[in-house]
Amino acid sequence: MIPIVVAQLFTTPAPIFTATPAPLSERAALEARLVPVAAHAHRLGATLGVVVYDTGTGALATRNDGVMMPMGSLQTLAVALATYERVDRHQFTLAEVRVLLQRALGRGDDAASATLLQMLGGAASVNTALRADGLNEIEVAANDGGTATPRGLATLIARVIHGNLLSSASRDAMLGLLAQRDETRMTIDGHTFTAIVMLRGSHAGASERAALRAEVRQAIADVTKLFPLQ
């Protein structure tokens, strides 16, 4: 299952960029709309972790963003980053990994992600690469058993977009595949959002998790209507 899929914004060893001053009213509205979603998660016995960032206005809303939570298939973000870094260093050719990346990142195929992780030398190798990149709140493990904070995954995406982790070609390829899943990045009424949504401690089924994802997306859409871009 894909739990649900940014940036400085948080306290990181090396800030990546400075967000524009956040309109407090939009932030307050976003965080207020996340309250009932968190209550729904609580009824399922879960803790909700969220980071929502409007890349156009700089508004940032968070909930439990510093809590370590199971990544599940979101682990593919870290695996894909490590794979593209190897491509940029000519340790893999894009032809070797293109189809696996399309399946893992674009379609949420856990088996493809596991194959890439094996090609990369296992979880320890990927974690070493993440630490070298300054991404200290992501811990990859076999069988999608890794953990991360919502802000850790959000920072990974932000570093891909705004930093120098990847070549421009690899960056564009990775973001293009992410857009196919429409879970970590979304565009609503001209606003482009990065959104990370995670759950900890829930035994909720697939339909309940999907309902929570839909609630977060609806919350973002509702707030967007209140703050149209000029």
The end-to-end distance, rounded to whole angstroms, is: 38 Å
Helix content: 40-55%
Structural class: alpha+beta
Number of domains: 1
- Low-confidence stretches are 1-19
Task: Provide the CATH architecture.
Answer: 3-Layer(aba) Sandwich
- The pLDDT mean sits at 84
Strand content: 5-15%
Oligomer: single chain
Ordered list of secondary-structure elements with their pairings:
Elements: H1 24-43, E1 47-54, E2 60-63, E3 69-70, H2 75-88, H3 94-107, H4 110-119, H5 123-132, E4 138-139, E5 147-148, H6 150-162, H7 168-181, E6 185-188, E7 191-200, H8 206-226
Antiparallel strand pairs: 1-2, 1-7, 3-5, 4-5, 6-7
Structure write-up:
The chain is an alpha+beta fold and 230 residues long. The chain has one domain: Beta-lactamase. 50% of the residues lie in helices and 14% in strands. Strand 4 and strand 5 form a beta hairpin. 46% of the residues are buried.
Label this structure with key terms:
8 helices, 230 residues, single chain, 3-stranded antiparallel β-sheet, alpha+beta, 50% helix, Beta-lactamase
What does this entry show, briefly?
This protein has 230 residues and is α+β, with helices and mostly antiparallel strands. Helices cover 50% and strands 14% of the residues.
